[in-house]
Design goal:
6 helices, 421 residues, Helix Hairpins, single chain
Length: 421
Amino acid sequence: MSKRRSIATAVVVLVLVGGAAAVWWQPARQEQPRFGRNFRGDDGPVPVIAALTRRADVPVYLDGVGTVRALNTVTVKPQVDGRLLSVNYTEGQQVEEGFVLAKIDPVTYQAAYDQAVAKKAQDEATLANARIDLARYAKLMTTNAVAQQQYDSQKATVAQLEALVRLDQAQIDNAKAFLDYTTIVAPVPGRTGIRLVDQGNIVRASDSTGIVVITQLQPISLLFTLPQQQLGEVNKAFAQRTLQVDAFAPDNKTVIETGVLKVVDNQVDQTTGTIKLKAEFPNRDFQLWPGGFVNVRLLINTLQDVVVAPTAAVQRGPRGTFVYVVQDDNKVAIRPVTLAQQDETQAVIGKGLEVGERVVTTGFARLTAGADVTVTNAGEAPPAGAEPEAAQSDRRRGRGNRREQRSEASPPNPAATGRPQ
């Protein structure tokens, strides 16, 4: 009997413990699904940032890295020997073509020039006398007063003297050239470098260092390379029009100079698989300097009136590229798209989107097809059919005014409100 009572007591205790456990466990089990729904975003719309697709003209660029080179670099050397009398430029000076850079002592060259001029004058006087004799012999020949041989000899003498005068003129020109070389002028416009020789030194035509180096900076050249795979489209565009080339600042964002493509090299570099191109820039503000490395881009085409979307909106999956489109009912749909071109900021949509559609740019982690969303960026246009905020405010103000008017026209009935008078 006592054994049965013990079993019954144990059963009662087990029932009570199980009931208490069930009561304790039930709230926790109910809370877990609510936490899961909150985590998945099933309780409300998913906040996203969206942007409108639009139409635009999109340039097509090819990017490369180039080296700046001076259009002309000249090492100015003396062409005659002598003492340097003066140096007339300052280091770093911008000079024009023909600017007098230095002067060499011209004394000996001036003397050689004067000697050549005097020699010519002497020979011209002898030639004049020989011509008079030749004319006299020609008259006497009509009367047979002189022999034919004498006449012919005089005629040859005149010819020799004429050749001698021409030789004298050549010597004058040569002496004049050497005399002019004592004045050293700038052969091209450009900027002078550091002075290589000082005033008072003896300079020679055989010197290898020269007097100064002039670098032409305006305009300036830039050599850059592109992969050989892009050679076909570059040649096609270059044959049709002048191609624009942009040079970037060190931040790789700011365009510091715009020039034009001048030359496409006539062969591919087999060691690197690249093709060299040469562009020319006005370099108005001296932003480009010889020897510097510059990032460049070559404009080869412009896509006219195409649909563009932010690059951040384009997603990639197993089936290709797609975007999340926010529909008028604020639900998202997955839309496959075809890209014609893409860069860091915008993508050209070949197929899949129309102008004015809203595409999600931020907030993809919790998105699924058909999910409710709320567009959080203030600049986003409201969906089609939605009432503008200003109209909603006016409508709310109107309801408030009508309530006030009703309040003033008919005071509340105490009996209806249940408050004592």
